[in-house]
Structures are given as C-alpha cells and as structure tokens.
Protein: Peptidase S8/S53 domain-containing protein
Organism: Linum tenue
Amino acid sequence: SFYGVARGIARGGVPWARIATYSVCGLTCSSADVLAAFDDAIADGVDVITISIGRRSAVDLDRDTIAIGGFHATKRGILTVHSAGNGGPDPATTASVAPWLLSVAASTIDRKFESKVVLGNGKIFTVNKHFFAV
C-alpha cells in the first residue's frame, strides 16, 4: 500500500488474454531487429504492443524505430505502449515524442509485482522479455 492507498491484490485486467513474446535485443539492439519484431507482431494480429526499449533522449521521428514501428501498428488499429524514458526528474527528459504512442513513465520502487504465466500444459513461469504483445 502507498500511504494507505491501493490495498489488496494486484493482478492483470484481462486474465483470458493470450500473450505473445518476441525476443528483440540480445547483446545489441539494432533498428532492424526492433522493426522486424513490430512486423511479426502486426502479422500475428495482436491487439496491443508494449515495448520496454527506450532512449535517453528524443530523436527525430524519421530515425526513431519505435515511433516508426508504432506508426505502422497504429495504421492497423494496434495500440503501441512504450517507455517514455527514465532520464528524469529534470524537465523535458522524455524520449517519447510521437503522438501516436502511449508513453508510460517508470520509476524505481521497493516492491516487486510478479505475474506468472500458466501454459496449457500446466507449466508456470515468469516472463521477462523486452517486447510483449497481447
């Protein structure tokens, strides 16, 4: 609880959602890899893309692979949610400037919110990838 607010159990809002994960970055993270993951998710017919890859500062939209991939997803009715960047708390530190992306801020807290994934065969594991699509 945060000052007595948000007591109870935290869990996902759509328990019947199917999740597809795409491994995008290894030791390096190229623009081609990011755009290929967007293409795969779009081709798979996902409803939402959430990508936790970001920059330290904004770049021109014609060079921002997340903005470009997100634009193609938006044209197909797919919402793209991504990290606004964690360069704050100084003013103007967001790295997300594309108006078609839903940008989400992040911070560090002293809690851990875990979500388990249960497969059809009963196997349970925790997903920890850079790119998720629902």
Strands lie at 20-21, 48-51, 79-83, 102-104, 116-118, 124-126, 131-133.
